[in-house]
Amino acid sequence: MTLVLSLGDPAGVGPELAVRAWAEGAGPFTALGSADHLEKLGATVARVDAPDATPWPEALPVIDIPLAEDVTPGTPSLANAPAVVEAINRGVQLCLDGHASALVTAPIAKWVLKEGAGFAHPGHTEFLAHLSGAPRPVMMLAGPELRVVPVTIHIPIADVPAALTPELLEETIRVTHAGLIRDFGVPTPRLAIAGLNPHAGEGGVMGREEIETLTPVLDRLQAEGFDLTAPLPADTMFHPAARARYDAAICMYHDQALVPLKTLSFDDGVNVTLGLPFIRTSPDHGTAFDIAGTGRARPDSLIAAIRLAQEMAARRA
């Protein structure tokens, strides 16, 4: 089996980066999207009906999903939104049916899908969970030097304390622990847990979430045998010596996790969704409409996402 790659918004950088990734030897993979558009980007394509792992010398295998309108780089089209959603749908189904080893997703623009296709989900992760029936997907950002998992994701900072429930924290830790074992080959995962407040609350002086919400969950999981270090001040968790002491950092909110990850791995970070019944990775960047079609976008993160998906699939096999 080979992996499949949904091309994302055709007006963004996803399709052009897929062409470059194939040219730079990141295959084999089968693209899900418009074959005509890929040909206009200079690719030699082979239209196929199913994922094809044949090592084509030049042609990029494509399961063709035609677009409603011609593409203008940097200018998203609402008319093309249904095709973007269909590519994701097709990729999930191929994985669930056992015809693809993993799904790599190029970036989408949620507002385009919402207005053009009635997309009702906050993002890719939630949509993939909906399609697959996964109860608790977990977003991990992985780079060569660091893996981070935010417990709460795309919500305002003001809403984080209320959203940070013991149940959510425990589910996130359990899914991350299982994913490190199954997909990353870490037999006994070490997890560092960040505090929510400055100085991890400093004994309750700067907030009591560490005492009342985090520590009871962590004590219970440690009693089960989980290797947890927590709660830690986030400002001392990400220097080299600290990173050497854990396999992943569990962070309480979006930027607490993504700022250090993107500082260390801005060009080659990968978004991994744990807790799904199939492997899913994605480049750690958006559609980049502002540079689409200019040749300035770098394929590093997409190539890293493809190669990580291949490694994860090999471990599961």
From TrEMBL:
EC number annotated for this UniProt entry: 1.1.1.262
Catalysed reaction, written as an equation: 4-(phosphooxy)-L-threonine + NAD(+) = 3-amino-2-oxopropyl phosphate + CO2 + NADH
Known cofactor(s): Zn(2+); Mg(2+); Co(2+)
Enzyme class name: oxidoreductase
Keywords for the protein's UniProt record, in alphabetical order: Cobalt, Cytoplasm, Magnesium, Metal-binding, NAD, NADP, Oxidoreductase, Pyridoxine biosynthesis, Zinc
Pfam family membership, one: PdxA
SUPFAM superfamilies attached to this UniProt entry: Isocitrate/Isopropylmalate dehydrogenase-like
Entry keyword RNA-binding: no
GO MF, one example: NAD binding
Gene3D superfamilies recorded: Isopropylmalate Dehydrogenase (3.40.718.10)
Cross-referenced InterPro entries: PdxA, PdxA_fam
Keyword Signal: no
An annotated GO BP: pyridoxal phosphate biosynthetic process
Compartments (UniProt record): Cytoplasm
Binding site for a divalent metal cation: H154, H199, H254
Subunit record text: Homodimer.
Protein name (record): 4-hydroxythreonine-4-phosphate dehydrogenase
Organism: Pontivivens ytuae
